[in-house]
Amino acid sequence: REKIDFFFLMIRRPPRSTQSRSSAASDVYKRQPQQVPETLLLKRFGDMMNQNELKKCYIGAGYYNTITPPVVQRNILENPQWYTSYTPYQAEISQGRLESLLNFQTMICELTGLEQSNASLLDEGTAAAEALNLCYGTFSSKKNVFLVSKDVFPQTIEIVKTKAKFLNVEIIVDDVSKFDYKSHKERLCGVLIQYPDNFGSVRNYETLIQQIKTEAEAKVVLATDLLALTLIKSPGELGADIAIGTAQRFGVPMGYGGPHAAFMAVREEFQRKIPGRVVGISKDAQGRSAYRLALQTREQHIRREKATSNICTAQALLANISVMYAIYHGPRGLKEIARRVNSLAQILFLGLNDLGYQTVQKCKTNIFDTVAINFEQTNMADHLITFLQDNDINIRRIDDHHVSISFDETTTLEDLEQLLQHFAKFNNKETIQINKIIQEET
């Protein structure tokens, strides 16, 4: 009751003409306390937020802690000239933001190995839904089956299913390595694969992608991780047609789940079908190079019923933050962050195996930032999660038999050592020293 009354503080009294429309509404407004100063309101909010229990998070699955460079936070994230700006329809007063978004597109193209990128989408799940829409439209709606790997993030699978329902597209969730593509050649429009996958495994899909294109003539979509792409083969090198994902771990705080900027990159043949906005370089009246919105195929106000998408536009501010993060660190800096995260995950993999855990990955080279553990007994995964929660640590429960631990750029050696101590205690083993693991490997 106290919290309900508190939120009534933020409801302004309606005009007199509306106060008598509903007796129920009248009762609500009678209960409304007097308005309070903003400072008191913020203090009450702060007191409520302090009730949150802060635990070390290793959940991952597309959401990772990150360090926003102070110069980016101060000059972009907290700068009203950046965060209050709307769609840059007037190019003559938006050159700075357009140049930054063009840099974002360039960054995505370089990391994915594909020719064309848009100026961001909403999040990874809706980007996957857009990829479904693109694959379906490529075949003029004649192919209406879309295959989703069972190792795609679960939240992405649910969003794709929802989108497919309204397109009358059949979604098949299956093992893409064992799927019969020849028998689905006439109906299969596309295949969605997670890279690295839901368990954190990094696999080379080059042969599989070639098989899909040969046997089913379908389009291939890879949902990928930008930081991982600084070290592993790009979707373009593997032969994928479309790459999607989120730029969140490039300096954008988790923010209790969002918002975050997604991306989509495609081969040149799809450049006029890509959803969202595309920033390009043109010439102004004096013949000088200038930036403008080159393609807006998504926009309903231009193409109406022929728009390539009806999912709401983009996350331009967060796309700008992610590309400024990349500019701040540079290619070498991004690779150093990725190698450090990868090294910590590999040490965890070796330590867990020494402690008697059965990891999903059989080789450390199949790991980027996530290690998954398999339990034969059904209740062991839940017991481990509860044990770690009691020690202020959150890991991810994949299913009844699997959990995973994901690292990011905020993870330290001390965090890793603490984790190994808890895993040793849970399995009734002696603690393994990190230095010993490193020495045995070298």
Query: What fraction strand?
Result: 15-25%
Q: How are the strands of the largest sheet arranged?
A: 2-8-7-6-5-3-4
Helix content percent band: 40-55%
End-to-end gap:
61 Å
User: Biggest β-sheet: count, sense, barrel?
Assistant: 7 strands, mixed
Uncertain regions: pLDDT < 50 for 5+ in a row?
none
Order of helices and strands: HHHHEHHHEHEHEEHEHEEEEHHEEHEEHH
Average pLDDT reading:
89
The DSSP helix count reads 16
Overall number of strands: 14
Structural class: alpha/beta
The backbone outline, from C-alpha atoms, is globular
Radius of gyration: 25 Å
Structure description:
It is a single chain. The protein is 41% helix and 16% strand. It is an alpha/beta fold and 442 residues long. Helix 7 runs parallel beside helix 13.
Features:
442 residues, alpha/beta, five-stranded mixed β-sheet, 16 helices, 41% helix
Topology:
Layout: H1 2-8, H2 16-19, H3 23-31, H4 38-49, E1 56-58, H5 70-77, H6 80-83, H7 95-112, E2 116-117, H8 124-138, E3 145-149, H9 154-167, E4 170-174, E5 188-195, H10 206-215, E6 219-225, H11 235-238, E7 242-246, E8 262-266, E9 278-283, E10 289-295, H12 300-303, H13 316-354, E11 358-359, E12 370-374, H14 380-389, E13 393-399, E14 402-406, H15 413-426, H16 434-441
Parallel strand pairs: 1-13, 3-4, 3-5, 5-6, 6-7
Antiparallel strand pairs: 2-8, 7-8, 9-10, 11-12, 12-14, 13-14
Helix pairs in contact: 5-13, 7-13, 8-9, 13-15
